[in-house]
Design a protein that fits this description.
Strand order of the largest sheet: 7-6-5-8-9-11-10-12
Distance between the termini: 21 Å
Shape: globular
Radius of gyration: 19 Å
């Protein structure tokens, strides 16, 4: 599409500005108890959100490949793209938490018929995303600066996909977005066959409770452990899918969207949590069932 060609040219032009710069720190601003900063690390642009009383942090909010802005760098953002296995052609997608906007920008590029709603509470994060990461709103991509729960309480829209990536420093999410009542609110905002994806820090004190709450609320829950310190949960009321069907759908998506990274390795990491997969007499999970029905997206 001509729009996609023009959009990629815009993204590359923006990235070239930071490639050509001699600086390595482009932006710093304080917000509540955090410092928001943008730095260049080799060929990558990095967004940080560090507690003001911390000496340093290992937790990165967003990473942009300056030489290929549509190639997602963070493992969890690649993993969250698996949400398309359940909704390959979503009509409307919700993002809770923006970061640098890399995932929103990528999906907005490759899904030209989809509408997107992003919600981010921290103005400096929005400034960093728009000024340095080339995040840009348009008639299909909207942004609200708000608390995600407060926004959803007012918002009457139904979404095919809801992607939550709401992190502070240290791999912790605000407690109120990891509670059963918040996940129940998200479930109310999902349309038929919709899916909620939640990126959660493995060391977050709310991690186990969040996984249990999702299993209590949704008929089917999968988990995908990232290469770092987070796990992405996929929760839906659609029936479970066999592993072979998920792999087949992944192949269709890769061919159709022509993403800049492979999805199959992430699909292979999916683990069905609820309902629990069948067990053999030895107590080990049974082999994935065969599924001769065509995968969605074909």
């Amino acid at each position: 599409m001509a729009w996609q060609q023009a959009n990629e040219a815009r993204l590359r032009q923006s990235a070239q500005r930071w490639i050509d710069s001699n600086e390595t720190t482009f932006y710093t601003e304080e917000w509540e108890d955090y410092y928001v900063a943008v730095t260049r690390e080799g060929r990558r642009l990095v967004l940080w959100m560090m507690e003001t009383d911390a000496a340093s942090t290992d937790w990165i909010q967003s990473v942009l490949d300056l030489h290929d802005p549509l190639h997602l760098q963070s493992s969890y953002t690649q993993a969250m793209t698996l949400a398309l296995l359940w909704q390959p052609s979503p009509r409307k997608v919700f993002f809770g938490g923006l970061g640098g906007g890399c995932l929103a920008t990528m999906l907005h590029h490759f899904l030209p018929q989809t509408e997107f709603q992003c919600v981010e509470i921290a103005q400096p994060v929005v400034t960093a995303a728009t000024r340095f990461f080339a995040f840009q709103t348009d008639d299909r991509l909207s942004l609200a600066i708000d608390d995600v729960r407060a926004f959803l309480l007012r918002d009457a829209a139904n979404y095919d996909l809801m992607l939550l990536d709401i992190f502070c420093d240290g791999g912790r999410s605000p407690a109120h977005v990891m509670q059963p009542d918040f996940f129940a609110l998200c479930r109310q905002r999902l349309g038929e066959g919709g899916l909620l994806a939640v990126n959660a820090g493995n060391g977050d004190p709310e991690f186990a409770g969040a996984a249990g709450a999702l299993a209590d609320l949704f008929s089917t829950v999968y988990a995908c452990r990232g290469r770092g310190s987070t796990t992405v949960f996929f929760a839906t009321d659609s029936p479970p899918r066999s592993h072979s069907a998920l792999l087949d759908t992944t192949s269709v998506l890769e061919q159709h969207l022509q993403l800049r990274f492979p999805l199959l390795p992430w699909t292979s990491r999916l683990e069905q949590l609820h309902p629990a997969p069948p067990q053999t007499e030895s107590g080990r999970p049974a082999a994935p069932p065969t599924d001769d029905s065509p995968p969605s997206g074909q």
